Amino acid sequence: MELTIALAKGRLAKFAIELFSKCGIDTSELREDTRKLVVCDKKNELRFVLVKPSDVPVYVYRGVADIGIAGKDTLLEEGLPLYEMLDLKCGKCKVCVAGYPKQKERITSNITRVATKYPRIAKMYYDEKGEGIEIIKLNGSIELAPILDLSDVIVDIVESGTTIRENGLTILEEVCDISARLVVNQVSLKTKAEKIQPLIEKMKIALEDM
Ligand SMILES: Nc1ncnc2c1ncn2[C@@H]1O[C@H](COP(=O)(O)OP(=O)(O)OP(=O)(O)O)[C@@H](O)[C@H]1O
Ligand SMILES: O=P(O)(O)OC[C@H]1O[C@H](OP(=O)(O)OP(=O)(O)O)[C@H](O)[C@@H]1O
């Protein structure tokens, strides 16, 4: 096998499969709903491993995958040294601070309680502002936290805004823009350059009409 590619299951899978297909790679066994975790192309040149989105950086950093596709949020949160080679411009959303409108007037303690799936991103953001926070790490349904007064605000993904709106919350601050990125293991980029570079070139061309 020449290259191993870590693909995030979930939201980014469909786009990633379409992208590889547009690069002329046989993706017939690589369906969004497959339960197989390791899928190879017909030429046995590429091996796709289907992983939990937040684990993509770990597989690539450890070198068990040469390449990966992951959201910028996941990359920032894991903070691992990887080469970020392409902005795939899909999975677009923003990391935001959200809460009740007029949140500032509601805060009773001087340390803001922040519920989030992204403790590292939240800490970096508030550190930069010089504000102390207490982080409450959750793994989903983050918008529930202010409703139950588990937290004052949340730091989470906002795309259409439907989830915060339907839960009576609003964007208070924008932290950063997010999109999916192609990342490469630092050693693989040197040792497998003759395989990786042409694939990246094909991806750049394929991305132009997606
Ligand atoms: N509502 C959204 N709209 C657009 N892109 C999103 C949205 N939520 C997440 N994303 C992006 O898509 C990536 C994958 O999201 P997905 O929901 O599949 O995984 P996840 O949030 O890590 O899921 P899990 O909770 O199962 O680990 C995220 O890392 C982010 O970059
Ligand atoms: O602005 P919107 O278009 O409504 O999208 C934002 C929502 O999508 C993500 O949640 P996800 O669907 O992954 O669910 P979970 O994190 O609560 O499991 C994110 O954590 C927000 O809750």
TrEMBL record:
Leader peptide range in chain numbering: none
Q: Which reaction does it catalyse?
A: 1-(5-phospho-beta-D-ribosyl)-ATP + diphosphate = 5-phospho-alpha-D-ribose 1-diphosphate + ATP
**Main site of residence?**
cytoplasm
Which E.C. number(s) belong to this protein?
A: 2.4.2.17
GO biological process assignments:
L-histidine biosynthetic process
Subcellular location per UniProt equals: Cytoplasm
> Under the GO molecular function aspect, what terms does this record hold?
ATP binding; ATP phosphoribosyltransferase activity
Q: Which HAMAP family would you find in this protein's record?
A: HisG_Short (MF_01018)
Record remark: domains: Lacks the C-terminal regulatory region which is replaced by HisZ.
Describe its assembly.
Heteromultimer composed of HisG and HisZ subunits.
What name goes with this protein?
A: ATP phosphoribosyltransferase
Say which species the protein is native to: Christensenella minuta
Q: What is the lineage of its organism?
A: Bacteria, Bacillati, Bacillota, Clostridia, Christensenellales
